[in-house]
Amino acid sequence: MKVTKAEIVISAVSEQQYPNDQLPEIALAGRSNVGKSSFINTLINRKNLARTSSKPGKTQTLNFYKINDAFYFVDVPGYGYAKVSKKERQKWRKMMEDYFTKRSSLKAVLLITDIRHEPTDDDLQMYDFLKYYELPVIIIGTKLDKIPKNKRAYHVKRTEVTFQIETGDMLIPFSAETGENKDEAWSSIRHYLGL
Fold first, then answer.
1. pLDDT tens digits, residue range 125-180?
2. What pTM was computed for the model?
3. In whole angstroms, what is the distance from residue 111 CA to residue 4 CA?
């Protein structure tokens, strides 16, 4: 997909602030520091539209990125980050739950994981949560370039088995460094956007 226009529209903390132009949305969820921003930047061929940070837990709002005036990527706060107060975590959880359960323009969720490691309990909990609300999920296994080619099949299989991926959902191994499987990612996103 050729991206000619990409802009951050709003960093929202409540429903009242969400864009109301009814464009379809694809959300990105994942652990803090798993590479959500790098994934967005690679997909849209921009260096830093989505801010990458070496400090986990940096995204504390729902960031709406408008792409080609046709749809939004919505980056939600990373989970599983310990250095945040319990109160703060509960606030995020409520904000994310409200978004995932009430947003009618949400078409699918990209669950970003690190394919080098077995999915964490937080990853599995997130997947179960999304499936409970019957949201389509595309699991993106980032950092593919860090795995030797002869070990990739093992890592992919382990991720599939650990998640017990439901029929209709998919796993796409991905590298933000090399852009490997970028076309596959776009093709599955386009499918859910109906573009």
1. 999 999 999 999 999 999 999 999 999 999 999 999 999 999 889 999 999 999 99
2. 0.90
3. 25
Question: Cα–Cα distance between 12 and 95 in angstroms, integer?
Answer: 10
| pLDDT over 50 at 78, yes or no | yes
- Is the pLDDT assigned to residue 55 strictly greater than 50? no
| Predicted confidence band of residue 118 (pLDDT cuts 50, 70, 90) | very high
60's CB contacts (< 8 A; 6+ apart) are 77, 88, 92
